[in-house]
Amino acid sequence: MSPTTLVTVPAALPRLSPKVVGLLAALVTVVIWTAFIVVARASADPARAPTLTPIDIVFARLLGAGLILLPLGWWLTQTQRLRQREAGQMPTAGSLWGFSPLPLRITVLTGVFGGLIYGLLSYSGFAFAPAAHASVLMPGSLPLWTALLAVFLLGDRITPSRAVGLVCIVAGDLLVGGASLLHALDGSGVWRGDVLFILAAFTWSCYSVLVRKHALQAVHATTAITVFAFFVFVPTYLLLVWAGVLQGQVFTAPLRDVLWQMLMQGVGSVVVSGISFNMMIRAFGPVRSTMLTAVVPGMSALAAALFLGEPLPWNVLLGLALVTAGIVFGVSQAGAKKP
Known about the structure:
By secondary structure, the protein is an all-alpha fold. The chain has one domain. It contains 12 helices and no strands. It has helices spanning 18-44, 54-86, 104-125, 131-137, 142-153, 160-181, 190-213, 218-242, 255-284, 286-291, 295-307, 314-334. It starts with 17 loop residues before the first helix and ends in a 5-residue tail after the last helix.
């Protein structure tokens, strides 16, 4: 399979080009990412008396995604091994006891950044900072981190037009995150969430560049990172709760809350948007893919104001405008150049 191939398009949609499939994947990704930010903030905000902690939500996220992707990973690996046997080769495909369809090294690399650390950082950030800050600092700073990583790992170059867009993104990030850092000692704690959001964006950028570098298929990559995070985090969480070291609330919270997080954060944010995001990367490359999420900051900030009643101060609004302008400018100036 060539690095520019997306996935096998069903026979019912024979006329859809890879670009159209990529645009549809971008639409799905944007909608789910917007909902992810609002729901995660509503679930982790201490002022709303949440029934689950950020660590609990990570557990529910991996449990929900794992129920779907672990069996899928097993099937993908066994299919690959069967083809190897038929070709007279040793059945060595996959890793992690046959649940990850990717080799162990790639599974660990992508799983650490895209499956484990990203979830821990982002959900912890929502316990300190409002959704509007996450809107700017997570999807907003993705193009910045991805562009810089692509220079070192993919041999990409930053054109003058793209540099202008990245400068706008940095300025927007500083308006939002910098304002909270000025009040780091006033006890508000918002700055902690901002730092966690920026780090979460960095880890996701690492993952997206790795997907492009190794030309990973969407389903295989999403399955592999989930399998890795599941096997590392879920047993650790259960052990710490059993030992009394961690005050986990999964087993005491209302079942509907746990099931909702499994569905929204696991099935939606991991399975569906994970595959659609990887399809975007295969279609447009990591830099332009993260730039195509230009509408996420504005949509999620407005949704948070509408559904959560969160304020939108001038620095956040101006930061949103700068970040969105920077992303749109970078995309529009990229033209037909190879990312």
